[in-house]
TrEMBL record:
The keyword rRNA processing does not apply. CDD domains: SRP54_G. Gene3D superfamilies: P-loop containing nucleotide triphosphate hydrolases, Signal recognition particle SRP54, nucleotide-binding domain, Signal recognition particle, SRP54 subunit, M-domain. InterPro entries: AAA+_ATPase, P-loop_NTPase, Signal_recog_part_SRP54_M_sf, Signal_recog_particle_SRP54_M, SRP54, SRP54_euk, SRP54_GTPase_dom, SRP54_N_sf. This is Signal recognition particle 54 kDa protein. It comes from the Eukaryota. The M domain binds the 7SL RNA in presence of SRP19 and binds the signal sequence of presecretory proteins. The NG domain, also named G domain, is a special guanosine triphosphatase (GTPase) domain, which binds GTP and forms a guanosine 5'-triphosphate (GTP)-dependent complex with a homologous NG domain in the SRP receptor subunit SRPRA. The two NG domains undergo cooperative rearrangements upon their assembly, which culminate in the reciprocal activation of the GTPase activity of one another. SRP receptor compaction upon binding with cargo-loaded SRP and GTPase rearrangement drive SRP-mediated cotranslational protein translocation into the ER. It catalyses: GTP + H2O = GDP + phosphate + H(+). GO terms for molecular function: 7S RNA binding; endoplasmic reticulum signal peptide binding; GTP binding; GTPase activity. Keywords: Cytoplasm, Endoplasmic reticulum, GTP-binding, Hydrolase, Nucleotide-binding, Nucleus, Ribonucleoprotein, RNA-binding, Signal recognition particle.
Protein backbone atom coordinates (compact mmCIF):
# COMPACT_ATOMS: atom_id res chain seq x y z
CA UNK A 1 0.00 0.00 0.00
CA UNK A 2 1.56 3.35 -1.01
CA UNK A 3 2.38 5.72 1.89
CA UNK A 4 0.30 8.45 0.31
CA UNK A 5 -2.84 6.37 0.75
CA UNK A 6 -2.63 6.64 4.54
CA UNK A 7 -3.36 10.02 6.09
CA UNK A 8 -0.30 11.00 8.10
CA UNK A 9 -2.32 13.53 10.05
CA UNK A 10 -4.58 10.85 11.55
CA UNK A 11 -2.57 10.82 14.79
CA UNK A 12 -0.21 13.35 16.34
CA UNK A 13 1.73 11.33 18.92
CA UNK A 14 3.38 14.45 20.36
CA UNK A 15 0.04 16.02 21.27
CA UNK A 16 -1.47 12.87 22.78
CA UNK A 17 -2.12 12.75 26.51
CA UNK A 18 0.48 10.68 28.36
CA UNK A 19 -2.12 8.30 29.80
CA UNK A 20 -3.35 7.09 26.41
CA UNK A 21 -2.15 3.83 24.89
CA UNK A 22 -0.25 5.03 21.80
CA UNK A 23 0.11 1.54 20.35
CA UNK A 24 -3.66 1.02 20.42
CA UNK A 25 -4.32 4.47 19.00
CA UNK A 26 -2.01 3.72 16.05
CA UNK A 27 -3.70 0.34 15.51
CA UNK A 28 -7.09 2.02 15.68
CA UNK A 29 -6.07 4.60 13.07
CA UNK A 30 -4.59 1.96 10.73
CA UNK A 31 -7.76 -0.08 11.13
CA UNK A 32 -10.02 2.83 10.15
CA UNK A 33 -7.90 3.74 7.12
CA UNK A 34 -7.82 0.13 5.86
CA UNK A 35 -11.59 -0.11 6.27
CA UNK A 36 -11.91 2.98 4.05
CA UNK A 37 -9.64 1.38 1.44
CA UNK A 38 -11.69 -1.84 1.30
CA UNK A 39 -15.00 0.05 1.26
CA UNK A 40 -15.12 2.00 -2.05
CA UNK A 41 -18.30 3.77 -0.98
CA UNK A 42 -20.27 2.12 -3.78
CA UNK A 43 -23.38 0.12 -2.95
CA UNK A 44 -22.92 -3.53 -3.92
CA UNK A 45 -25.13 -4.86 -6.70
CA UNK A 46 -27.94 -7.14 -5.56
CA UNK A 47 -30.18 -9.31 -7.77
CA UNK A 48 -33.89 -8.60 -8.16
CA UNK A 49 -36.31 -11.38 -7.32
CA UNK A 50 -38.67 -12.40 -10.12
CA UNK A 51 -36.53 -11.11 -13.02
CA UNK A 52 -33.55 -12.36 -15.04
CA UNK A 53 -30.25 -11.41 -13.37
CA UNK A 54 -27.22 -12.10 -15.58
CA UNK A 55 -23.90 -12.37 -13.70
CA UNK A 56 -20.67 -12.70 -15.70
CA UNK A 57 -17.46 -13.94 -14.05
CA UNK A 58 -13.99 -12.80 -15.14
CA UNK A 59 -10.50 -13.31 -13.71
CA UNK A 60 -7.12 -14.97 -14.01
CA UNK A 61 -6.81 -18.65 -14.89
CA UNK A 62 -6.70 -20.74 -11.72
CA UNK A 63 -8.24 -18.05 -9.51
CA UNK A 64 -11.23 -20.24 -8.72
CA UNK A 65 -13.82 -18.75 -11.09
CA UNK A 66 -15.61 -21.96 -12.04
CA UNK A 67 -15.70 -23.20 -8.45
CA UNK A 68 -17.01 -19.82 -7.29
CA UNK A 69 -19.67 -19.84 -10.04
CA UNK A 70 -20.98 -23.12 -8.63
CA UNK A 71 -20.81 -21.81 -5.06
CA UNK A 72 -22.74 -18.66 -5.94
CA UNK A 73 -25.41 -20.64 -7.81
CA UNK A 74 -25.78 -22.94 -4.81
CA UNK A 75 -25.88 -19.94 -2.43
CA UNK A 76 -28.85 -18.41 -4.24
CA UNK A 77 -30.52 -21.77 -4.86
CA UNK A 78 -30.61 -22.39 -1.10
CA UNK A 79 -32.36 -19.04 -0.72
CA UNK A 80 -35.11 -20.07 -3.13
CA UNK A 81 -33.85 -18.54 -6.39
CA UNK A 82 -34.08 -20.36 -9.72
CA UNK A 83 -30.42 -20.57 -10.74
CA UNK A 84 -28.39 -21.84 -13.71
CA UNK A 85 -24.82 -21.90 -15.06
CA UNK A 86 -23.43 -21.31 -18.56
CA UNK A 87 -19.91 -22.56 -19.27
CA UNK A 88 -18.38 -20.30 -21.92
CA UNK A 89 -14.88 -21.46 -21.03
CA UNK A 90 -13.85 -23.22 -24.25
CA UNK A 91 -10.19 -22.53 -23.47
CA UNK A 92 -10.26 -25.01 -20.58
CA UNK A 93 -8.15 -28.16 -21.04
CA UNK A 94 -10.40 -31.11 -21.83
CA UNK A 95 -13.42 -29.01 -22.82
CA UNK A 96 -13.45 -30.70 -26.27
CA UNK A 97 -14.10 -34.08 -24.65
CA UNK A 98 -17.89 -33.54 -24.74
CA UNK A 99 -18.37 -34.27 -28.44
CA UNK A 100 -22.11 -33.55 -28.39
CA UNK A 101 -21.36 -29.86 -27.80
CA UNK A 102 -19.86 -28.95 -31.16
CA UNK A 103 -20.03 -25.17 -30.70
CA UNK A 104 -16.62 -23.79 -29.68
CA UNK A 105 -17.28 -20.05 -29.95
CA UNK A 106 -17.67 -18.78 -26.35
CA UNK A 107 -19.61 -15.71 -27.52
CA UNK A 108 -22.23 -17.88 -29.25
CA UNK A 109 -22.40 -20.29 -26.31
CA UNK A 110 -22.92 -17.45 -23.82
CA UNK A 111 -25.48 -15.59 -25.94
CA UNK A 112 -27.57 -18.68 -26.76
CA UNK A 113 -27.38 -19.89 -23.17
CA UNK A 114 -28.56 -16.59 -21.70
CA UNK A 115 -31.41 -16.36 -24.22
CA UNK A 116 -32.51 -19.93 -23.44
CA UNK A 117 -32.51 -19.46 -19.67
CA UNK A 118 -34.23 -16.08 -19.89
CA UNK A 119 -37.05 -17.75 -21.86
CA UNK A 120 -37.26 -20.39 -19.11
CA UNK A 121 -37.59 -17.66 -16.44
CA UNK A 122 -34.38 -18.37 -14.55
CA UNK A 123 -33.66 -15.64 -11.98
CA UNK A 124 -29.89 -16.10 -11.53
CA UNK A 125 -28.01 -16.73 -14.80
CA UNK A 126 -24.27 -17.13 -14.20
CA UNK A 127 -21.85 -16.99 -17.14
CA UNK A 128 -18.40 -18.55 -16.59
CA UNK A 129 -15.64 -17.32 -18.92
CA UNK A 130 -12.11 -18.42 -19.75
CA UNK A 131 -9.29 -17.44 -17.42
CA UNK A 132 -7.05 -14.83 -18.95
CA UNK A 133 -3.94 -12.75 -18.22
CA UNK A 134 -3.63 -9.01 -18.82
CA UNK A 135 -1.02 -9.68 -21.52
CA UNK A 136 -3.37 -11.92 -23.56
CA UNK A 137 -5.01 -9.32 -25.80
CA UNK A 138 -7.00 -11.85 -27.84
CA UNK A 139 -8.63 -13.35 -24.76
CA UNK A 140 -9.40 -9.87 -23.42
CA UNK A 141 -11.09 -9.02 -26.71
CA UNK A 142 -13.09 -12.25 -26.44
CA UNK A 143 -14.17 -11.27 -22.91
CA UNK A 144 -15.42 -7.92 -24.20
CA UNK A 145 -17.37 -9.66 -26.98
CA UNK A 146 -19.03 -12.01 -24.46
CA UNK A 147 -19.94 -9.02 -22.30
CA UNK A 148 -21.46 -7.16 -25.25
CA UNK A 149 -23.40 -10.27 -26.31
CA UNK A 150 -24.99 -11.13 -22.94
CA UNK A 151 -25.28 -7.60 -21.48
CA UNK A 152 -24.67 -8.74 -17.87
CA UNK A 153 -26.28 -6.97 -14.92
CA UNK A 154 -23.18 -7.62 -12.83
CA UNK A 155 -19.58 -8.42 -13.84
CA UNK A 156 -17.66 -10.12 -11.02
CA UNK A 157 -13.86 -10.07 -10.86
CA UNK A 158 -12.61 -13.20 -9.04
CA UNK A 159 -9.33 -12.63 -7.18
CA UNK A 160 -7.05 -15.32 -5.75
CA UNK A 161 -6.05 -14.17 -2.24
CA UNK A 162 -2.64 -15.82 -2.57
CA UNK A 163 -1.28 -13.64 -5.42
CA UNK A 164 -0.89 -10.61 -3.15
CA UNK A 165 -0.10 -7.16 -4.52
CA UNK A 166 0.37 -8.51 -8.06
CA UNK A 167 -3.40 -8.42 -8.39
CA UNK A 168 -3.55 -4.61 -8.66
CA UNK A 169 -2.27 -4.47 -12.25
CA UNK A 170 -4.43 -7.46 -13.21
CA UNK A 171 -7.57 -6.00 -11.64
CA UNK A 172 -6.98 -2.66 -13.37
CA UNK A 173 -6.57 -4.40 -16.74
CA UNK A 174 -9.94 -6.14 -16.32
CA UNK A 175 -11.61 -2.93 -15.16
CA UNK A 176 -10.26 -1.03 -18.18
CA UNK A 177 -11.78 -3.60 -20.57
CA UNK A 178 -15.19 -4.32 -19.00
CA UNK A 179 -17.35 -2.72 -16.31
CA UNK A 180 -16.31 -4.75 -13.25
CA UNK A 181 -19.00 -4.08 -10.62
CA UNK A 182 -18.10 -6.57 -7.87
CA UNK A 183 -15.14 -8.51 -6.48
CA UNK A 184 -15.02 -12.00 -4.93
CA UNK A 185 -11.85 -12.99 -3.05
CA UNK A 186 -11.10 -16.74 -3.11
CA UNK A 187 -8.81 -19.20 -1.27
CA UNK A 188 -8.94 -17.43 2.09
CA UNK A 189 -8.85 -20.82 3.81
CA UNK A 190 -5.09 -21.02 3.14
CA UNK A 191 -2.27 -19.00 4.68
CA UNK A 192 -3.00 -15.95 2.52
CA UNK A 193 -4.65 -13.18 4.52
CA UNK A 194 -6.07 -11.41 1.48
CA UNK A 195 -4.11 -8.16 1.63
CA UNK A 196 -4.30 -8.01 -2.15
CA UNK A 197 -8.03 -7.37 -1.74
CA UNK A 198 -7.12 -3.80 -0.80
CA UNK A 199 -5.40 -3.37 -4.17
CA UNK A 200 -8.25 -5.06 -6.07
CA UNK A 201 -10.84 -2.71 -4.59
CA UNK A 202 -8.60 0.31 -5.15
CA UNK A 203 -8.02 -0.68 -8.80
CA UNK A 204 -11.63 -1.55 -9.69
CA UNK A 205 -13.47 0.90 -7.37
CA UNK A 206 -15.86 -2.00 -6.83
CA UNK A 207 -17.01 -3.58 -3.55
CA UNK A 208 -16.14 -7.09 -2.41
CA UNK A 209 -19.38 -9.07 -2.18
CA UNK A 210 -18.27 -12.58 -1.15
CA UNK A 211 -15.19 -14.43 0.06
CA UNK A 212 -14.31 -18.08 -0.60
CA UNK A 213 -13.32 -19.87 2.60
CA UNK A 214 -12.86 -23.49 1.52
CA UNK A 215 -13.20 -26.16 -1.14
CA UNK A 216 -16.77 -27.22 -0.36
CA UNK A 217 -19.74 -25.85 -2.26
CA UNK A 218 -21.12 -24.02 0.77
CA UNK A 219 -17.78 -22.35 1.65
CA UNK A 220 -18.85 -18.93 0.38
CA UNK A 221 -19.56 -16.11 2.82
CA UNK A 222 -21.00 -12.62 2.32
CA UNK A 223 -18.20 -10.09 2.79
CA UNK A 224 -18.12 -7.93 5.93
CA UNK A 225 -15.55 -5.14 5.90
CA UNK A 226 -14.65 -4.68 9.58
CA UNK A 227 -14.29 -8.38 10.51
CA UNK A 228 -12.15 -8.91 7.37
CA UNK A 229 -9.72 -6.09 8.28
CA UNK A 230 -9.68 -7.23 11.90
CA UNK A 231 -8.52 -10.71 10.83
CA UNK A 232 -6.09 -9.20 8.30
CA UNK A 233 -4.37 -7.35 11.17
CA UNK A 234 -4.35 -10.49 13.36
CA UNK A 235 -6.97 -9.06 15.74
CA UNK A 236 -9.45 -11.89 15.28
CA UNK A 237 -13.13 -11.81 14.40
CA UNK A 238 -15.24 -12.43 17.50
CA UNK A 239 -18.36 -11.36 15.59
CA UNK A 240 -17.77 -14.06 12.96
CA UNK A 241 -17.05 -16.65 15.63
CA UNK A 242 -20.32 -15.79 17.39
CA UNK A 243 -22.18 -16.07 14.07
CA UNK A 244 -20.74 -19.56 13.53
CA UNK A 245 -21.73 -20.60 17.06
CA UNK A 246 -25.23 -19.16 16.57
CA UNK A 247 -25.61 -21.14 13.32
CA UNK A 248 -25.40 -24.30 15.41
CA UNK A 249 -28.49 -23.15 17.41
CA UNK A 250 -27.09 -24.46 20.66
CA UNK A 251 -29.61 -22.38 22.63
CA UNK A 252 -32.38 -24.54 21.14
CA UNK A 253 -30.99 -27.60 22.95
CA UNK A 254 -33.01 -27.22 26.17
CA UNK A 255 -32.04 -30.70 27.33
CA UNK A 256 -28.32 -29.86 27.20
CA UNK A 257 -28.88 -26.49 28.94
CA UNK A 258 -30.77 -28.27 31.72
CA UNK A 259 -27.93 -30.78 32.12
CA UNK A 260 -25.32 -28.02 32.29
CA UNK A 261 -27.45 -26.20 34.86
CA UNK A 262 -27.17 -29.27 37.09
CA UNK A 263 -23.48 -29.78 36.33
CA UNK A 264 -24.06 -32.92 34.25
CA UNK A 265 -22.09 -33.80 31.12
CA UNK A 266 -22.21 -37.24 29.52
CA UNK A 267 -20.05 -38.86 26.87
CA UNK A 268 -22.95 -38.45 24.43
CA UNK A 269 -22.96 -34.71 25.14
CA UNK A 270 -19.23 -34.65 24.39
CA UNK A 271 -19.84 -36.52 21.12
CA UNK A 272 -22.49 -33.98 20.08
CA UNK A 273 -20.15 -31.08 20.87
CA UNK A 274 -17.45 -32.69 18.72
CA UNK A 275 -20.02 -32.85 15.90
CA UNK A 276 -20.72 -29.14 16.36
CA UNK A 277 -17.00 -28.35 16.17
CA UNK A 278 -16.77 -30.27 12.88
CA UNK A 279 -19.70 -28.25 11.50
CA UNK A 280 -18.01 -24.93 12.32
CA UNK A 281 -15.35 -25.50 9.68
CA UNK A 282 -11.56 -25.91 9.48
CA UNK A 283 -9.67 -25.39 12.76
CA UNK A 284 -7.30 -22.91 11.14
CA UNK A 285 -10.23 -20.76 10.04
CA UNK A 286 -11.76 -20.82 13.54
CA UNK A 287 -8.40 -20.01 15.16
CA UNK A 288 -8.07 -17.00 12.85
CA UNK A 289 -11.24 -15.57 14.41
CA UNK A 290 -9.72 -15.53 17.89
CA UNK A 291 -7.74 -12.37 18.80
CA UNK A 292 -4.03 -13.13 19.04
CA UNK A 293 -4.15 -15.94 16.51
CA UNK A 294 -3.83 -15.82 12.74
CA UNK A 295 -5.01 -18.26 10.11
CA UNK A 296 -1.38 -19.37 9.93
CA UNK A 297 -1.22 -20.30 13.65
CA UNK A 298 -2.04 -23.90 12.75
CA UNK A 299 -0.22 -25.36 9.76
CA UNK A 300 -2.18 -27.36 7.20
CA UNK A 301 -0.53 -30.55 8.42
CA UNK A 302 -1.40 -29.88 12.05
CA UNK A 303 -4.93 -28.86 11.12
CA UNK A 304 -5.52 -32.11 9.25
CA UNK A 305 -3.97 -34.01 12.15
CA UNK A 306 -6.31 -32.29 14.62
CA UNK A 307 -9.38 -33.05 12.51
CA UNK A 308 -8.27 -36.67 12.13
CA UNK A 309 -7.78 -36.89 15.90
CA UNK A 310 -11.28 -35.54 16.52
CA UNK A 311 -12.76 -38.08 14.10
CA UNK A 312 -10.80 -40.81 15.86
CA UNK A 313 -12.27 -39.84 19.23
CA UNK A 314 -15.76 -39.88 17.71
CA UNK A 315 -15.09 -43.34 16.23
CA UNK A 316 -14.16 -44.57 19.70
CA UNK A 317 -17.46 -43.25 21.09
CA UNK A 318 -19.32 -44.90 18.20
CA UNK A 319 -18.26 -48.23 19.72
CA UNK A 320 -19.82 -47.42 23.11
CA UNK A 321 -23.29 -48.58 24.08
CA UNK A 322 -26.17 -46.38 25.29
CA UNK A 323 -25.46 -47.09 28.95
CA UNK A 324 -21.88 -45.86 28.60
CA UNK A 325 -22.77 -42.81 26.52
CA UNK A 326 -25.65 -41.66 28.76
CA UNK A 327 -24.16 -42.39 32.18
CA UNK A 328 -23.80 -39.29 34.38
CA UNK A 329 -20.24 -40.36 35.18
CA UNK A 330 -19.05 -42.32 32.17
CA UNK A 331 -15.40 -42.40 33.29
CA UNK A 332 -16.36 -43.98 36.63
CA UNK A 333 -18.41 -46.64 34.83
CA UNK A 334 -15.38 -47.59 32.72
CA UNK A 335 -13.07 -47.65 35.75
CA UNK A 336 -15.38 -50.17 37.44
CA UNK A 337 -15.35 -52.42 34.38
CA UNK A 338 -11.92 -52.49 32.67
CA UNK A 339 -13.28 -54.99 30.15
CA UNK A 340 -15.38 -52.17 28.72
CA UNK A 341 -12.23 -50.31 27.64
CA UNK A 342 -10.88 -53.41 25.87
CA UNK A 343 -14.22 -53.99 24.12
CA UNK A 344 -14.49 -50.38 22.89
CA UNK A 345 -10.85 -50.47 21.71
CA UNK A 346 -11.50 -53.63 19.68
CA UNK A 347 -14.72 -52.24 18.23
CA UNK A 348 -13.12 -48.98 17.11
CA UNK A 349 -9.80 -50.49 16.00
CA UNK A 350 -7.62 -48.47 18.39
CA UNK A 351 -5.30 -49.20 21.31
CA UNK A 352 -6.67 -49.25 24.87
CA UNK A 353 -4.54 -46.20 25.71
CA UNK A 354 -6.51 -44.20 23.10
CA UNK A 355 -9.75 -45.04 24.91
CA UNK A 356 -8.16 -44.11 28.24
CA UNK A 357 -6.96 -40.81 26.78
CA UNK A 358 -10.51 -40.03 25.62
CA UNK A 359 -11.87 -40.77 29.09
CA UNK A 360 -9.22 -38.50 30.65
CA UNK A 361 -10.27 -35.67 28.33
CA UNK A 362 -13.93 -36.31 29.10
CA UNK A 363 -13.22 -36.18 32.85
CA UNK A 364 -11.67 -32.70 32.47
CA UNK A 365 -14.72 -31.44 30.58
CA UNK A 366 -17.14 -33.01 33.04
CA UNK A 367 -15.32 -31.46 36.02
CA UNK A 368 -15.46 -28.01 34.44
CA UNK A 369 -19.18 -28.38 33.67
CA UNK A 370 -19.80 -29.49 37.25
CA UNK A 371 -18.14 -26.33 38.57
CA UNK A 372 -20.05 -24.18 36.08
CA UNK A 373 -23.31 -25.77 37.21
CA UNK A 374 -22.47 -24.75 40.77
CA UNK A 375 -22.49 -21.05 39.85
CA UNK A 376 -25.95 -19.84 40.84
CA UNK A 377 -28.03 -18.38 38.01
CA UNK A 378 -25.38 -19.00 35.36
CA UNK A 379 -27.73 -20.75 32.93
CA UNK A 380 -30.89 -18.89 33.89
CA UNK A 381 -33.13 -18.53 30.84
CA UNK A 382 -30.63 -20.48 28.77
CA UNK A 383 -28.56 -17.35 28.16
CA UNK A 384 -25.24 -17.44 29.96
CA UNK A 385 -24.07 -14.06 28.66
CA UNK A 386 -26.73 -12.08 30.54
CA UNK A 387 -26.21 -13.75 33.89
CA UNK A 388 -22.46 -13.87 34.45
CA UNK A 389 -21.11 -11.31 36.91
CA UNK A 390 -17.39 -10.35 36.96
CA UNK A 391 -16.45 -12.75 39.77
CA UNK A 392 -18.23 -15.65 38.05
CA UNK A 393 -16.51 -14.84 34.76
CA UNK A 394 -13.15 -14.79 36.57
CA UNK A 395 -13.84 -18.30 37.90
CA UNK A 396 -14.77 -19.52 34.42
CA UNK A 397 -11.61 -17.98 32.95
CA UNK A 398 -9.48 -19.75 35.56
CA UNK A 399 -11.12 -23.08 34.76
CA UNK A 400 -10.61 -22.55 31.02
CA UNK A 401 -6.97 -21.55 31.54
CA UNK A 402 -6.29 -24.78 33.45
CA UNK A 403 -7.70 -26.85 30.58
CA UNK A 404 -5.85 -25.01 27.81
CA UNK A 405 -2.50 -25.84 26.27
CA UNK A 406 0.01 -23.32 27.79
CA UNK A 407 1.22 -22.43 24.26
CA UNK A 408 -2.31 -21.52 23.22
CA UNK A 409 -2.80 -19.42 26.36
CA UNK A 410 0.51 -17.65 25.64
CA UNK A 411 -0.63 -16.78 22.09
CA UNK A 412 -3.78 -15.23 23.54
CA UNK A 413 -1.71 -12.95 25.79
CA UNK A 414 -2.02 -14.97 28.99
CA UNK A 415 -4.92 -14.62 31.41
CA UNK A 416 -5.50 -10.96 30.51
CA UNK A 417 -5.84 -11.90 26.83
CA UNK A 418 -8.27 -14.70 27.67
CA UNK A 419 -10.34 -12.35 29.84
CA UNK A 420 -10.41 -9.73 27.07
CA UNK A 421 -11.58 -12.31 24.53
CA UNK A 422 -14.31 -13.59 26.86
CA UNK A 423 -15.53 -10.03 27.47
CA UNK A 424 -15.77 -9.47 23.72
CA UNK A 425 -17.57 -12.77 23.26
CA UNK A 426 -20.02 -11.82 26.04
CA UNK A 427 -20.72 -8.43 24.49
CA UNK A 428 -21.09 -9.92 21.02
CA UNK A 429 -23.43 -12.68 22.19
CA UNK A 430 -25.59 -10.08 23.93
CA UNK A 431 -25.89 -8.11 20.71
CA UNK A 432 -23.50 -5.36 21.74
CA UNK A 433 -20.70 -6.11 19.28
CA UNK A 434 -20.67 -2.73 17.55
CA UNK A 435 -17.91 -1.01 15.64
CA UNK A 436 -14.45 -2.44 15.45
CA UNK A 437 -14.03 -5.84 17.02
CA UNK A 438 -10.98 -5.99 19.23
CA UNK A 439 -11.12 -2.36 20.38
CA UNK A 440 -14.23 -2.44 22.56
CA UNK A 441 -12.18 -1.64 25.63
CA UNK A 442 -10.07 1.21 24.28
Amino acid sequence: MPPSSMRRSSIDLEEMASGLNKRRMIQHSVFKELVKLVDPGVKAWTPTKGKNNVIMFVGLQGSGKTTTCSKLAYYYQRKGWKTCLICADTFRAGSFIFKIYTEMDPVVIAAEGVEKFKNESFEIIIVDTSGRHKQEDSLFEEMLQVSNAVQPDNIVYVMDASIGQACEAQAKAFKDKVEVASVIVTKLDGHAKGGGALSAVAATKSPIIFIGTGEHIDDLEPFKTQPFISKLLGMGDIEGLIDKVNELKLDDNEELIDKLKHGQFTLRDMYEQFQNIMKMGPFGQIMGMIPGFGTDFMSKGNEQESMARLKKLMTIMDSMNDQELDNKDGAKLFSKGPNRIARVARGSGVATRDVQELLTQYTKFAQMVKKMGGIKGLFKGGDMSKNVNPSQMAKLNQQMAKMMDPRVLHHMGGMSGLQSMMRQFQQGAAGNAKGMMGFNNM
